Amino acid sequence: MSLGADYVIEPPQQADAAGIARCFVQVYGHDYVHKEVFSPLRYWPKVASGELIPMVARDLSGQVVGHVALERGPGTKVAERGEAVVVAEHRGHGLLERMTERLWEKALEHHLESVYAEPLTIHTFSQRNDEHAGMPVCAALLGVNPESFGPKNLPGPRLGQRQSYLRTFKFLSKPAPRTIHVPRYYHEVVMELYSALGAAAASALPHCPHVQESKNTITVNDRGHAVIDFEAIGAGAGAELRRAFHDVQASGAMSVQLSLRLDDPGLPELCETARDLGFFFSGLGPAFAEGADTLLLQWLGEPLDTNKLQLFSDGAKRLIAFIDRDRIKAAAPD
Question: What is the DSSP string of 281-316?
């Protein structure tokens, strides 16, 4: 248990599930992507199984006024720090930061190796918490949700464009050195991101792509966002990427993310195809592919002005500036 000025930070009890749901309804209404927070019957089994590792903040009356959690899949050692909420009248007391500090203790108890988060860019509250928690920005996820998706009654003007997020990341122990296949035009920015994460990386010598078969998956959600994930890059990967891209465009996707393993020698060649299709740099997915790192590229189907994004850290601002330059190059290739 952690005591603060009129607040207690601790793991919740099963009886707190209704209070946690009340916090999310106050901030998000019923429009929140993690629907289990609204249902005690769905929420607590995830806690009991270890899939969800939560922390709450209470006022002196014992009422839950804040919540944050680590969420992971079965057997995975990378968890998402999310489901973060503090009710309006209790903001300004550093509750999100204090709950996050307690989460690191729980992460180590559960043998997690790393944690990531995806803070909003319509304000900097979560970004500031991530910076304080030592979670530098490793990627930008532009236009992945409709503008209406997010907290209700948020002050400020409508942006007139789809919502964007950052991805922040933290290794909980010293990561092993990486050997990566990265295109020369992304080498400097990739190395800068690895340095911020505290991971050593070196470029592999040029190598002919494997003659293995390509393996890729496509996911498209109901919010106009798609992900094309190449688990392996084979000789026919370029044609497969073109087909996959055509399919997700036909589905109505307005934002498409392309994920490529950085340890795959076929990555540089497939990047050329991706850039021909209008994909641009998005960032890194450290340890996102069963422990291997991924290079993230992105395509947008409608205009998006990054000057409208609220960015807190210098690292986020440098990354967005690079992405903007690369978007221009991808839109008008040589």
Answer: EEEEEEEEETTEEEEEEEEESS---GGGS---SHHH
